[in-house]
Design a protein that fits this description.
Elements (H helix, E strand, L loop, with lengths): L1 E6 L8 E7 L6 E10 L2 H8 L15 E8 L11 E4 L9 H5 L9 H5 L10 E3 L2 E3 L11 E5 L3 E4 L5 H4 L5 H13 L7 E4 L5 H10 L5 E4 L5 H7 L4 E3 L7 H8 L6 E4 L4 H9 L7 E4 L13 H5 L3 E4 L7 H13 L9 E6 L3 H9 L5 E5 L1
Parallel strand pairs: 10-11, 10-13, 11-12, 13-14, 14-15, 16-17
Antiparallel strand pairs: 1-2, 2-6, 3-4, 3-8, 3-17, 4-5, 5-9, 6-7
Bound molecules: nicotinamide-adenine-dinucleotide, ligand AHE and zinc ion (ZN).
The site of ligand AHE has 13 residues, from loops.
Protein backbone atom coordinates (compact mmCIF):
# COMPACT_ATOMS: atom_id res chain seq x y z
CA UNK A 1 0.00 0.00 0.00
CA UNK A 2 0.94 3.68 -0.16
CA UNK A 3 1.20 5.87 2.92
CA UNK A 4 2.62 9.23 4.00
CA UNK A 5 5.57 9.55 6.32
CA UNK A 6 8.16 12.04 7.53
CA UNK A 7 11.52 10.67 6.37
CA UNK A 8 14.91 11.40 7.94
CA UNK A 9 17.33 11.28 5.01
CA UNK A 10 20.50 12.50 6.68
CA UNK A 11 21.69 13.37 10.20
CA UNK A 12 20.83 16.94 11.12
CA UNK A 13 18.55 17.61 8.15
CA UNK A 14 14.85 18.43 8.59
CA UNK A 15 12.41 15.59 7.87
CA UNK A 16 10.60 15.61 4.54
CA UNK A 17 7.09 14.29 3.90
CA UNK A 18 7.13 11.50 1.36
CA UNK A 19 4.82 9.02 -0.33
CA UNK A 20 6.04 5.72 1.05
CA UNK A 21 5.42 2.20 -0.21
CA UNK A 22 4.57 -0.13 2.67
CA UNK A 23 4.59 -3.90 2.28
CA UNK A 24 1.81 -5.73 4.17
CA UNK A 25 2.16 -7.85 7.33
CA UNK A 26 3.93 -11.20 7.20
CA UNK A 27 3.51 -14.03 9.74
CA UNK A 28 3.22 -12.68 13.29
CA UNK A 29 2.96 -9.08 12.07
CA UNK A 30 0.24 -6.45 12.14
CA UNK A 31 -0.62 -3.46 9.94
CA UNK A 32 -1.47 -0.41 12.07
CA UNK A 33 -2.86 2.96 11.06
CA UNK A 34 -1.06 5.44 13.32
CA UNK A 35 -3.47 8.16 14.43
CA UNK A 36 -1.13 10.29 16.55
CA UNK A 37 2.51 10.37 17.64
CA UNK A 38 4.50 12.37 20.16
CA UNK A 39 7.97 13.75 19.44
CA UNK A 40 10.43 12.59 22.11
CA UNK A 41 13.91 13.95 22.74
CA UNK A 42 15.25 10.55 21.65
CA UNK A 43 13.93 11.17 18.11
CA UNK A 44 15.91 14.40 18.10
CA UNK A 45 18.97 12.60 19.51
CA UNK A 46 18.90 10.06 16.68
CA UNK A 47 18.21 12.70 14.04
CA UNK A 48 21.17 14.72 15.34
CA UNK A 49 23.55 11.89 14.41
CA UNK A 50 24.64 11.18 18.03
CA UNK A 51 22.98 7.73 18.19
CA UNK A 52 25.37 4.85 17.40
CA UNK A 53 22.34 2.92 16.13
CA UNK A 54 21.07 5.84 14.07
CA UNK A 55 20.63 4.76 10.45
CA UNK A 56 19.62 6.86 7.47
CA UNK A 57 17.34 7.07 5.63
CA UNK A 58 14.84 6.14 8.32
CA UNK A 59 11.33 6.80 9.50
CA UNK A 60 11.71 7.91 13.12
CA UNK A 61 9.03 8.12 15.86
CA UNK A 62 8.31 5.80 18.77
CA UNK A 63 5.47 7.38 20.75
CA UNK A 64 2.33 6.48 18.82
CA UNK A 65 -1.21 5.19 19.08
CA UNK A 66 -3.43 3.80 16.36
CA UNK A 67 -5.78 1.14 15.03
CA UNK A 68 -5.13 -2.36 13.70
CA UNK A 69 -6.10 -2.61 10.02
CA UNK A 70 -4.90 -6.11 9.14
CA UNK A 71 -3.18 -9.05 10.80
CA UNK A 72 -0.69 -11.47 9.24
CA UNK A 73 -0.84 -15.27 9.54
CA UNK A 74 -0.60 -16.64 13.06
CA UNK A 75 -1.55 -13.42 14.87
CA UNK A 76 -3.89 -14.48 17.68
CA UNK A 77 -4.11 -11.64 20.19
CA UNK A 78 -5.13 -8.77 17.92
CA UNK A 79 -7.82 -8.19 15.28
CA UNK A 80 -8.73 -5.39 12.87
CA UNK A 81 -10.32 -2.49 14.74
CA UNK A 82 -8.30 -2.99 17.95
CA UNK A 83 -6.72 0.16 19.36
CA UNK A 84 -3.02 -0.22 20.07
CA UNK A 85 0.15 1.48 21.27
CA UNK A 86 3.35 0.33 19.49
CA UNK A 87 6.12 -0.79 21.85
CA UNK A 88 9.80 -0.13 21.27
CA UNK A 89 10.33 -2.49 24.18
CA UNK A 90 8.25 -5.51 23.15
CA UNK A 91 7.00 -8.20 25.53
CA UNK A 92 7.20 -11.67 23.97
CA UNK A 93 6.69 -13.45 27.34
CA UNK A 94 8.94 -16.29 26.09
CA UNK A 95 12.54 -15.08 25.89
CA UNK A 96 15.09 -15.49 28.68
CA UNK A 97 14.66 -11.86 29.72
CA UNK A 98 10.85 -11.94 29.83
CA UNK A 99 10.87 -15.24 31.73
CA UNK A 100 13.48 -13.99 34.21
CA UNK A 101 10.94 -11.53 35.67
CA UNK A 102 14.03 -9.40 36.44
CA UNK A 103 13.79 -7.00 33.49
CA UNK A 104 11.43 -5.54 30.91
CA UNK A 105 14.14 -5.70 28.22
CA UNK A 106 12.64 -8.39 25.98
CA UNK A 107 15.32 -9.69 23.62
CA UNK A 108 13.10 -11.49 21.08
CA UNK A 109 13.64 -8.95 18.26
CA UNK A 110 16.19 -6.47 19.68
CA UNK A 111 18.99 -7.27 17.23
CA UNK A 112 16.99 -6.63 14.02
CA UNK A 113 15.27 -3.65 15.66
CA UNK A 114 18.67 -2.04 16.23
CA UNK A 115 19.49 -2.54 12.54
CA UNK A 116 16.31 -0.75 11.44
CA UNK A 117 14.74 -3.95 10.14
CA UNK A 118 11.76 -6.21 10.78
CA UNK A 119 12.50 -9.58 12.49
CA UNK A 120 12.95 -11.30 9.09
CA UNK A 121 15.84 -8.93 8.31
CA UNK A 122 14.03 -6.78 5.72
CA UNK A 123 12.41 -3.37 5.68
CA UNK A 124 8.73 -2.95 4.80
CA UNK A 125 9.28 0.71 3.77
CA UNK A 126 10.44 1.94 0.36
CA UNK A 127 10.61 5.39 -1.18
CA UNK A 128 11.08 5.54 -4.94
CA UNK A 129 11.79 1.79 -4.92
CA UNK A 130 14.66 2.08 -2.38
CA UNK A 131 14.44 0.65 1.15
CA UNK A 132 14.09 3.02 4.11
CA UNK A 133 14.96 1.88 7.65
CA UNK A 134 12.48 1.29 10.44
CA UNK A 135 13.32 2.96 13.79
CA UNK A 136 13.02 1.44 17.27
CA UNK A 137 10.65 -1.11 15.71
CA UNK A 138 7.91 1.51 15.63
CA UNK A 139 8.46 4.32 13.04
CA UNK A 140 5.40 6.23 14.19
CA UNK A 141 6.23 9.20 11.94
CA UNK A 142 4.55 7.08 9.25
CA UNK A 143 0.76 7.10 8.95
CA UNK A 144 0.84 3.29 8.51
CA UNK A 145 3.33 0.82 9.97
CA UNK A 146 3.90 -2.91 10.13
CA UNK A 147 4.83 -4.11 13.62
CA UNK A 148 5.29 -7.55 15.21
CA UNK A 149 2.35 -8.63 17.37
CA UNK A 150 4.63 -8.80 20.43
CA UNK A 151 5.35 -5.07 20.02
CA UNK A 152 1.75 -3.88 20.33
CA UNK A 153 -0.17 -3.17 23.52
CA UNK A 154 -3.94 -3.48 23.07
CA UNK A 155 -5.71 -0.58 24.76
CA UNK A 156 -9.33 0.39 25.43
CA UNK A 157 -11.14 1.94 22.47
CA UNK A 158 -12.45 5.05 24.25
CA UNK A 159 -8.96 6.48 24.97
CA UNK A 160 -8.08 9.52 22.81
CA UNK A 161 -5.18 8.78 20.46
CA UNK A 162 -3.78 12.31 20.62
CA UNK A 163 -3.23 11.95 24.39
CA UNK A 164 -2.47 8.29 25.04
CA UNK A 165 0.19 8.19 22.30
CA UNK A 166 2.42 9.82 24.95
CA UNK A 167 2.11 6.61 27.01
CA UNK A 168 4.10 4.97 24.19
CA UNK A 169 7.23 6.53 25.72
CA UNK A 170 7.34 9.63 27.94
CA UNK A 171 4.55 8.97 30.41
CA UNK A 172 5.45 5.32 30.96
CA UNK A 173 9.18 6.05 31.14
CA UNK A 174 8.80 8.75 33.79
CA UNK A 175 6.09 7.20 35.95
CA UNK A 176 7.50 3.70 35.46
CA UNK A 177 10.98 4.78 36.57
CA UNK A 178 9.44 5.76 39.93
CA UNK A 179 7.03 2.84 40.34
CA UNK A 180 8.75 -0.09 38.62
CA UNK A 181 12.50 0.69 38.60
CA UNK A 182 13.16 2.69 41.78
CA UNK A 183 10.03 1.53 43.65
CA UNK A 184 10.01 4.84 45.53
CA UNK A 185 8.25 4.58 48.87
CA UNK A 186 5.91 7.12 50.49
CA UNK A 187 7.78 9.86 52.32
CA UNK A 188 11.03 9.44 50.35
CA UNK A 189 12.84 12.56 49.11
CA UNK A 190 13.13 12.62 45.32
CA UNK A 191 15.28 14.82 43.05
CA UNK A 192 14.54 15.11 39.34
CA UNK A 193 17.19 16.56 37.00
CA UNK A 194 15.57 17.84 33.77
CA UNK A 195 11.92 18.86 33.80
CA UNK A 196 10.96 18.07 30.21
CA UNK A 197 8.64 15.46 28.76
CA UNK A 198 10.20 12.71 30.89
CA UNK A 199 11.15 14.55 34.08
CA UNK A 200 7.65 15.96 34.61
CA UNK A 201 6.30 12.42 34.47
CA UNK A 202 8.86 11.37 37.08
CA UNK A 203 7.49 14.22 39.20
CA UNK A 204 3.91 13.04 38.80
CA UNK A 205 4.99 9.46 39.57
CA UNK A 206 6.69 10.69 42.75
CA UNK A 207 3.52 12.48 43.78
CA UNK A 208 1.45 9.35 43.05
CA UNK A 209 3.50 7.27 45.49
CA UNK A 210 3.38 9.96 48.19
CA UNK A 211 7.01 11.07 48.06
CA UNK A 212 8.12 13.66 50.63
CA UNK A 213 10.19 16.46 49.12
CA UNK A 214 10.08 16.46 45.31
CA UNK A 215 12.93 18.65 44.10
CA UNK A 216 13.15 19.63 40.42
CA UNK A 217 16.35 20.86 38.78
CA UNK A 218 16.35 22.65 35.43
CA UNK A 219 18.25 25.44 33.70
CA UNK A 220 15.02 26.65 32.11
CA UNK A 221 13.13 28.82 34.64
CA UNK A 222 9.93 28.41 32.60
CA UNK A 223 9.78 24.77 33.77
CA UNK A 224 9.11 25.71 37.40
CA UNK A 225 5.40 26.53 37.14
CA UNK A 226 4.50 23.36 35.23
CA UNK A 227 6.57 21.19 37.55
CA UNK A 228 4.87 22.65 40.64
CA UNK A 229 1.50 21.82 39.09
CA UNK A 230 2.63 18.19 38.80
CA UNK A 231 3.84 17.91 42.41
CA UNK A 232 7.29 19.51 42.64
CA UNK A 233 7.81 21.05 46.08
CA UNK A 234 11.20 22.76 45.51
CA UNK A 235 12.85 24.16 42.38
CA UNK A 236 16.61 24.51 41.84
CA UNK A 237 18.11 26.37 38.90
CA UNK A 238 21.75 25.14 38.74
CA UNK A 239 22.83 28.48 37.32
CA UNK A 240 21.65 30.21 40.50
CA UNK A 241 23.42 28.10 43.14
CA UNK A 242 27.15 27.69 43.85
CA UNK A 243 27.16 23.91 43.94
CA UNK A 244 24.04 21.98 43.01
CA UNK A 245 25.11 18.81 44.86
CA UNK A 246 25.81 20.61 48.16
CA UNK A 247 22.59 22.58 47.76
CA UNK A 248 20.49 19.42 47.38
CA UNK A 249 22.25 17.68 50.26
CA UNK A 250 21.31 20.62 52.46
CA UNK A 251 17.73 20.74 51.20
CA UNK A 252 17.27 17.01 51.92
CA UNK A 253 19.08 16.89 55.28
CA UNK A 254 21.88 14.64 54.03
CA UNK A 255 20.96 13.66 50.48
CA UNK A 256 18.21 12.36 48.25
CA UNK A 257 16.65 8.96 48.77
CA UNK A 258 16.16 8.77 45.00
CA UNK A 259 17.38 10.91 42.11
CA UNK A 260 16.53 10.69 38.41
CA UNK A 261 18.60 12.06 35.52
CA UNK A 262 16.22 12.98 32.68
CA UNK A 263 18.54 14.97 30.40
CA UNK A 264 21.24 12.73 28.87
CA UNK A 265 24.14 14.82 30.26
CA UNK A 266 26.95 12.75 31.81
CA UNK A 267 28.08 15.60 34.11
CA UNK A 268 24.56 15.87 35.48
CA UNK A 269 24.44 12.07 35.89
CA UNK A 270 27.41 12.41 38.26
CA UNK A 271 25.68 15.19 40.21
CA UNK A 272 22.53 13.07 40.41
CA UNK A 273 24.47 10.20 41.96
CA UNK A 274 26.51 12.36 44.32
CA UNK A 275 23.50 14.23 45.73
CA UNK A 276 22.11 10.90 46.99
CA UNK A 277 22.13 10.00 50.67
CA UNK A 278 25.14 8.11 52.00
CA UNK A 279 24.29 4.48 52.73
CA UNK A 280 21.15 4.07 50.63
CA UNK A 281 20.44 6.79 48.04
CA UNK A 282 19.69 5.48 44.56
CA UNK A 283 20.22 7.38 41.32
CA UNK A 284 18.36 6.29 38.21
CA UNK A 285 19.68 7.25 34.76
CA UNK A 286 16.92 7.83 32.21
CA UNK A 287 18.64 10.30 29.87
CA UNK A 288 20.33 8.95 26.76
CA UNK A 289 23.86 10.27 26.19
CA UNK A 290 25.63 10.51 22.85
CA UNK A 291 27.82 7.78 21.35
CA UNK A 292 31.17 7.53 23.13
CA UNK A 293 30.03 9.36 26.29
CA UNK A 294 31.07 7.83 29.62
CA UNK A 295 30.05 8.41 33.23
CA UNK A 296 32.49 8.93 36.09
CA UNK A 297 32.43 9.18 39.87
CA UNK A 298 34.72 8.26 42.75
CA UNK A 299 34.14 4.57 43.55
CA UNK A 300 33.93 5.77 47.16
CA UNK A 301 30.47 7.10 46.28
CA UNK A 302 29.34 3.51 45.71
CA UNK A 303 31.45 2.02 48.52
CA UNK A 304 29.52 4.30 50.84
CA UNK A 305 26.21 2.87 49.73
CA UNK A 306 24.91 4.94 46.87
CA UNK A 307 23.43 2.89 44.02
CA UNK A 308 23.62 3.77 40.32
CA UNK A 309 20.88 2.28 38.11
CA UNK A 310 19.35 2.87 34.71
CA UNK A 311 15.95 2.29 33.20
CA UNK A 312 14.49 1.84 29.72
CA UNK A 313 10.78 2.48 29.18
CA UNK A 314 10.49 2.91 32.95
CA UNK A 315 10.93 -0.80 33.53
CA UNK A 316 7.42 -1.31 32.13
CA UNK A 317 6.36 -4.57 30.48
CA UNK A 318 4.50 -3.01 27.60
CA UNK A 319 1.68 -5.42 26.78
CA UNK A 320 0.90 -5.84 30.48
CA UNK A 321 1.52 -2.37 31.91
CA UNK A 322 0.62 0.04 29.07
CA UNK A 323 -3.13 -0.84 29.07
CA UNK A 324 -3.13 -0.25 32.86
CA UNK A 325 -1.48 3.15 32.44
CA UNK A 326 -4.10 4.06 29.83
CA UNK A 327 -6.73 3.17 32.47
CA UNK A 328 -4.98 5.44 35.00
CA UNK A 329 -5.28 8.29 32.51
CA UNK A 330 -8.93 7.55 31.71
CA UNK A 331 -9.71 7.33 35.46
CA UNK A 332 -8.11 10.74 36.06
CA UNK A 333 -5.24 9.32 38.15
CA UNK A 334 -2.57 10.83 35.90
CA UNK A 335 -2.50 14.08 33.94
CA UNK A 336 -1.39 13.90 30.34
CA UNK A 337 -3.39 16.75 28.79
CA UNK A 338 -1.40 19.58 30.38
CA UNK A 339 1.91 18.15 29.19
CA UNK A 340 0.84 18.16 25.54
CA UNK A 341 1.58 21.76 24.79
CA UNK A 342 1.43 21.62 20.98
CA UNK A 343 -0.53 19.64 18.37
CA UNK A 344 0.59 19.69 14.73
CA UNK A 345 -0.28 18.08 11.40
CA UNK A 346 2.37 15.79 9.87
CA UNK A 347 3.55 18.38 7.37
CA UNK A 348 4.59 20.65 10.28
CA UNK A 349 6.50 17.97 12.20
CA UNK A 350 9.79 19.89 11.98
CA UNK A 351 8.22 22.69 14.02
CA UNK A 352 7.79 20.15 16.82
CA UNK A 353 11.55 19.54 16.82
CA UNK A 354 12.24 23.30 16.78
CA UNK A 355 9.91 23.89 19.75
CA UNK A 356 11.72 21.17 21.71
CA UNK A 357 15.16 22.58 20.87
CA UNK A 358 14.08 26.06 21.99
CA UNK A 359 12.63 24.67 25.25
CA UNK A 360 9.18 26.01 24.37
CA UNK A 361 7.24 22.73 24.36
CA UNK A 362 6.88 19.86 26.77
CA UNK A 363 5.37 17.45 24.25
CA UNK A 364 4.35 18.16 20.69
CA UNK A 365 1.93 15.63 19.22
CA UNK A 366 1.50 15.07 15.49
CA UNK A 367 -2.01 14.07 14.43
CA UNK A 368 -2.59 12.29 11.13
P1 LIG B 1 13.26 17.36 26.94
O1 LIG B 1 14.07 18.05 25.92
O2 LIG B 1 11.78 17.49 26.90
O3 LIG B 1 13.72 17.77 28.42
C1 LIG B 1 15.05 17.94 28.82
C2 LIG B 1 15.06 18.98 29.96
O4 LIG B 1 16.37 19.04 30.51
C3 LIG B 1 14.70 20.40 29.52
O5 LIG B 1 13.70 20.93 30.37
C4 LIG B 1 16.01 21.17 29.63
O6 LIG B 1 15.83 22.53 29.97
C5 LIG B 1 16.69 20.41 30.77
N1 LIG B 1 18.15 20.53 30.79
C6 LIG B 1 19.01 20.46 29.75
N2 LIG B 1 20.29 20.56 30.18
C7 LIG B 1 20.23 20.71 31.53
C8 LIG B 1 21.22 20.84 32.54
N3 LIG B 1 22.52 20.82 32.26
N4 LIG B 1 20.81 20.96 33.83
C9 LIG B 1 19.48 20.96 34.13
N5 LIG B 1 18.50 20.85 33.20
C10 LIG B 1 18.87 20.72 31.91
O7 LIG B 1 13.64 15.81 26.81
P2 LIG B 1 12.77 14.53 27.24
O8 LIG B 1 11.89 14.12 26.12
O9 LIG B 1 12.22 14.78 28.59
O10 LIG B 1 13.95 13.45 27.33
C11 LIG B 1 14.92 13.54 28.34
C12 LIG B 1 16.00 12.49 28.17
O11 LIG B 1 15.45 11.18 28.39
C13 LIG B 1 16.61 12.43 26.75
O12 LIG B 1 17.98 12.13 26.88
C14 LIG B 1 15.87 11.24 26.12
O13 LIG B 1 16.61 10.70 25.06
C15 LIG B 1 15.78 10.33 27.31
N6 LIG B 1 14.74 9.27 27.27
C16 LIG B 1 15.09 8.07 27.79
C17 LIG B 1 14.15 7.05 27.87
C18 LIG B 1 14.51 5.73 28.46
O14 LIG B 1 13.75 4.78 28.29
N7 LIG B 1 15.61 5.61 29.18
C19 LIG B 1 12.86 7.27 27.37
C20 LIG B 1 12.55 8.52 26.85
C21 LIG B 1 13.50 9.54 26.81
N1 LIG C 1 20.39 3.45 20.19
C1 LIG C 1 20.66 4.17 21.36
C2 LIG C 1 19.87 3.59 22.52
C3 LIG C 1 19.11 4.65 23.13
C4 LIG C 1 18.32 4.11 24.32
O1 LIG C 1 18.87 3.79 25.37
N2 LIG C 1 17.02 3.97 24.13
C5 LIG C 1 16.13 3.62 25.23
C6 LIG C 1 14.79 4.15 24.91
S1 LIG C 1 14.80 5.89 24.70
C7 LIG C 1 13.20 6.19 24.33
O2 LIG C 1 13.01 7.52 24.18
C8 LIG C 1 16.00 2.10 25.34
O3 LIG C 1 14.93 1.54 25.31
N3 LIG C 1 17.09 1.45 25.56
C9 LIG C 1 17.15 0.02 25.65
C10 LIG C 1 17.48 -0.58 24.33
O4 LIG C 1 17.47 -1.80 24.21
O5 LIG C 1 17.76 0.20 23.37
C11 LIG C 1 22.13 4.15 21.71
O6 LIG C 1 22.58 5.09 22.36
O7 LIG C 1 22.78 3.17 21.33
ZN1 LIG D 1 11.13 8.40 23.84
Amino acid sequence: MKTKAAVAWKAGDPLTIEDVELEGPKAGEVLVEVKATGICHTDYYTLSGADPEGLFPAILGHEGAGVVLETGPGVSTLAPGDHVIPLYTPECRQCKSCLSRKTNLCTAIRSTQGKGLMPDGTSRFKVGGKPVHHYMGTSTFSNHIVVPEIALAKIRSDAPFDKVCYIGCGVTTGIGAVLFTAKVEAGANVVVFGLGGIGLNVIQGARMVGAGKIIGVDLNPAREAMARKFGMTHFVNPSEVDNVVDHIIQLTDGGADYSFECIGNTKVMRQALECCHRGWGQSIIIGVAEAGAEIATRPFQLVTGRVWKGTAFGGARGRTDVPRIVDWYMDGKINIDDLITHTLPLDRINEGFDLMKRGESIRSVVMY
